[in-house]
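Troubleshooting entry. The earlier prediction with PMT gave an output that would not parse, so I re-checked the input for stray whitespace and re-submitted. Clean input:
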Amino acid sequence: TVGGTREAIDPVRFISNHSSGKMGFAVAEAAASRGASVTVVAGATTVEPPANVNVIRAMSASEMHAAVKTELSSATIFVGAAAVADYAPANAANAKIKKDGRDVMTLELKKTPDILAEVSKNRHNGLLVVGFAAETNDVIGYARSKMEKKGLDLVVANDITKDGAGFNTDTNIATILTRSGGEIELPLMSKRELADKILDEVVKLRAVE
Ligand code: PMT
């Protein structure tokens, strides 16, 4: 999965985030260039997808969830690089919401499906599951707890408070956590270079299976 999701408030407004799709597309391109057949389920992105991958557009968390479910049975590796909204408006309005003199407006939100957790829980034999964690504090602690809660094989933790890391940059600074307790702390590098580091770890995991 790649990019940010858009959760409709009404026909003209949505809740989203700063994901550009650069990180996820870099992983897709790196995998394709190693000979993998790659399907990307992409939300909102500000950059073009690589040429040699199959792209399915799915804008909201629930659309992304449905698209992933459809595509997953043929996958051997799932990489969740998307910034999926954790909450979406509980009742998106059918018509544009008017101000009507209101100074304060309350929006009720409901939890979205956790695509990565579900993929991991219902995984078929041989599927490797890689997640990302974009954190601002206790980066490794939160990333490790996501790995455990969601039963992941690898987690790529990015500290989005660092210059050159996280959303909408061409570079990233990440630590790759492995299920055996390994921590590979990487310096600033292009997202494309990081993509290759992630895939190198995936290859190592595959080799020990
Ligand atoms: O797209 P870019 O601008 O290049 O930015 C890259 C990135 C910062 C978006 C990317 O590197 C990244 O960290 N993606 C995960 C962002 C995030 O906020 O993750 P999270 O901590 O909310 O979620 C953890 C993991 O669960 C992620 O793999 C996410 O895809 C997945 N998830 C989360 C919620 C949900 N409802 N479904 C999910 O699948």
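This one parsed fine. The mean pLDDT is 96.
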